[in-house]
Amino acid sequence: MSKFLRDLLDAEEPLFSLSLRDLEKASGHQSVDVKLIADITAETHLATRQLALDHKNTTGKELYQALLARIATDNERVTRIVGGKDSDDVRHIVPYLVAAANKVKFNRKVFVLKHSKAKDLLRQMPPQKLMERLGYGNIEDLFKGENFSEMYTALRFSEGPEWLNEYDELFKTVTAEDYEERDIEIVVMDHDKYVDLAEHFVQKKLHNVTHTKELGVIVVVPMKAERIKGLTLKTLPLLFHYLNEVKLYSTFFKLKSKTSKHFGETVMETLIADPGKAAQMAGQHVHWRVIQRYFGKLKDESHLEAFEPHVQPEDLHWRRAEHLLYEIDPEMEFWKDRDWVGMNFDGKPVTLNFVDVALSYSNEISYEDRYVYHFRESLWNELFARYMGMPNLEHQILRQLDNDMIAPEKLKAGKV
Description:
By secondary structure, the protein is mostly helical. The strands form 4 sheets. The protein has a 3-stranded mixed beta sheet with strand order 3-5-4, with helices on both faces. The chain has a two-stranded antiparallel ribbon with strand order 1-2. Strands 6-7 form a two-stranded antiparallel ribbon.
């Protein structure tokens, strides 16, 4: 059974099988992995039938092409629903997508770095390349003349990785008092100012959305191309994805601000390497993303006493990108709760992960090169979240939430 999941995840052996064995033993041999495999298989077969294909005889390429065709239809329909006319026209459609993202029901209150503290950090390390590019002789004029959230995001494009790593080191000095609650902000970067700076990011990522978890800002990056195929369902799911990303890191920092003696170092390590050491379960690291995903979806607000008074129920709010799309368009239900579903064909998964399929469609990715990154991340999270649902393992996690973790050997995934 472990081979099925191992191949989907491209996980390292023998570490994966040994880790799965430990999780099964710790859960009381509840066959969590077997049930997950059964659910993956059932959901794939159901989706195949919904696409008017025969799951017994359909090839991986046929399934992949049917999913791309589904995205093409969905893309045009959602474009019209949000008020747009041309989903490929970058300057036309982006404002509609941002407006739609700002309207969905989502608790946007987050625990983030004060602008005043961020400015203090930048005074210690002025971004000389950005200042020169924008025509500022000193840092104070830069602050006065530019939108701070937009300018702050531009640092990652202008200053280079060495500067960024050195800057992130400054965060070891921050304290809980340097943080405050603000609403998540979505910023559309000025095209003319930043399109050249952002070109490398767009070429590398093949999309146009990023975020700064420390400031709680989601940014739509300018692109040189005037037309991008399927931009509606390329950009909108990523805006929703980053709403969740900003929220989950906010909650993590909020909890650590009250429970960790080394808050600044925790922030610094998270910004630089995102080590994913929020807790341990059966000897394996568990990323905060999994903990928030698990506790955030509980209907009865179970075990909130483990988080209170530092973290409230609304802080644990977590909704998949396709759930937020369903709020805009009920016909998107096809993709709901399938971000972790996929089957191996020709040595690689064909996935029902909406973000992967939408990006594959927009970027015109071949069957052989199809995207699986978001699927594998979601499947890892689903696997750990299901084990976390076992009473003894849930208790093990809850016991640790108020303590700093000591890392065991980390469970590693293969390349994605």
